[in-house]
Amino acid sequence: MNLNEQTYRIKQMMGLSESVSDIKGTLNVGSRGPEVEELQRILSINPKDGKFGPQTANCVKDFQSKMKIKDDGIVGNDTKKIGRAHV
Question: Are 21 and 75 in contact (CB under 8 A)?
Answer without folding.
Answer: no
